[in-house]
Amino acid sequence: MKHRIKILTALMGFFCVLTLSMTVDAKSTVTPEPAIYAKSAIAVDADSGQILYQKNANQPRAIASISKLMTVYIVHQQIKANKLAWDDKVKISSELAKLSTASGLTNVPLTAGKAYSVRQLINATLVESANAAALALGQKVAGTATKFAALMNKTARKIGISDGHFYNASGLTNKLTGKLALPHVSANAENRLSAKDVALLAQKLLQKFPKVTNITKQTTSTFYGTTMTGHNQLIDDHNLGQGVRVDGLKTGTSDKAGACFVGSATTNGKHRIITVVLGARNKSASDPARFIQTAKLMKWVYATHQPIKLAAGATIAGVGKAKIPDGKQTTILPVTKTTHWVWADKGTSAKQISGQYVNQPAKLTSPTKKGTEVGHARLSIDGKRLQYIGHSAGKLVMVTNQSVKKANFFVRLWRAILRLF
């Protein structure tokens, strides 16, 4: 009997050690963040703005032709406001025509005195990264290059970009815009944004004008008989993960900026992410470094993370009850107003997600209707707060999950008396 007990004890000890070993091994196999060889980089959820990866993401840098995303965003705004139409014609000046054939610049040829549609100039701006086409759109919207630069900076502030600066619609250095250069501005002045602000700009563009990907996913197009070839080498790349497809957004290259790329990808048509790589290697026009780094980042996000759904009407652990002093019930547990997706390491459960009020909610008054806003909560996973781009991002609106009637006079009087003691 004693011999059997010794064997049983030994087996139990063995399995305890084995379990501990497996737990340690499981923790040690968590995929570390990828080494992204670029000056700055970031990956975010396109819908919520949740940051999934970042490297020097707050440092403003030259962004070259990525600037064209702001030009395209403003043009879309003008069309939505009925101040511009897709079929409106843009007449080309001699300065723009000369710039459109300048050596070393990406362009489609434009003819002085000829008019081109806004739609075709947008296509040329996004597919071919045509500099003169972008500048022509800026002039059409604002009248002059100076006024459009001011509009770009004003728009940037409105969408929450607090740092960086725009000098022109194309992203060229001031001197390379020729006679369209801004006066009293350094010849080498170049549009600058941080990786985080580039991601914010891309997010706003995709959220408000999602059909833009119908243009940015094109590998080739035509411009009045001229064949245009897109620069995005990740379009139709099937090596990024099962179901992962890239449909945008924009490249940018200059001596100061290096090679840059803003990527947009989905998995099985859902859960879109935005990636930004600024200042990658740029040995030649065909150097694939920015796409290699972007692919590495996209693969890592989709392979190691999972989106967890927090449905509308869900309670969040850690988010305390709201008080209704004069209600039939004096407290109520708030729930989420809308559905929210949270990215977390694979294997994470919804139970590991908790929240905390940004500001303690004010006391509610009754009668209180179902759906009354209680306050805003920030989310954490295992105590680590989630980070987001944008000033108001990451704040979940919490609401009442039921109506609460007002307590009768005698109940309220009795409560008041109790509060005195």
TrEMBL record:
Enzyme Commission number(s) from the entry: 3.4.16.4
GO biological process: cell wall organization; peptidoglycan biosynthetic process; proteolysis; regulation of cell shape
Residue ranges of domain Peptidase S11 D-alanyl-D-alanine carboxypeptidase A N-terminal in the record: 31-281
Gene Ontology molecular function: serine-type D-Ala-D-Ala carboxypeptidase activity
UniProt keyword annotations, A-Z: Carboxypeptidase, Cell shape, Cell wall biogenesis/degradation, Hydrolase, Peptidoglycan synthesis, Protease, Signal
All residue ranges annotated as the Peptidase S11 D-Ala-D-Ala carboxypeptidase A C-terminal domain in the record: 319-396
Entry keyword annotation includes Protein biosynthesis: no
Known function: Removes C-terminal D-alanyl residues from sugar-peptide cell wall precursors.
UniProt similarity note: Belongs to the peptidase S11 family.
Protein name: serine-type D-Ala-D-Ala carboxypeptidase
Organism: Lentilactobacillus buchneri subsp. silagei CD034
Gene: daca3
